[in-house]
Amino acid sequence: MFDNPTGFIFRILNFALLIAVMAYFFKRYAYPALKADQEAQEARKKSLEQERELLGQAQEQLDAQLKMQEQGWLELQKKMELWQQAFAHQARAVAAERAQWQATIDQQMQERERIMSEMALQRAVLPAAVAQARRELEKTFASAEQGEQYLASLIKKMEMR
User: Fold this and answer.
1) What is the pLDDT of residues 53-85, one digit of tens each?
2) Are 136 and 146 in contact (CB under 8 A)?
3) Is the whole-model pTM more than 0.70?
4) How far, in Å, CA of 101 to CA of 148, rounded?
């Protein structure tokens, strides 16, 4: 394979020349493209890292907003419970007041019914009682002697007391 040293030297020179040409073409054409790709990848990597940071910040903001909304919801829930309690208390107060009014109205109605009954009874019974008393008085005082006896017994009873 290596018969003569000159052939060996030319082969090495040929190989070195081939390597030099390849290095020249690589440096001239392939290297800028590869460098541009690498820079583009690094720029994309930086862009993705920035985007990840922005997304992390956005996630933190969303978490903070969610926490605030949960706190707001809890506050609203507490307010609703307080409102419901106040409403229930007011409803009970109104019901008690209505019951009191109804009791007062019932008492007034009973009193009116009693008064109306008494008046009706007086209208029905009083004339008959007056007529009967008049008849008895006329009977008792029909004679002067009976009137004097009645008045004497009445005065005697009054004196005893």
Assistant:
1) 999 999 999 999 999 999 999 999 999 999 999
2) no
3) no
4) 59
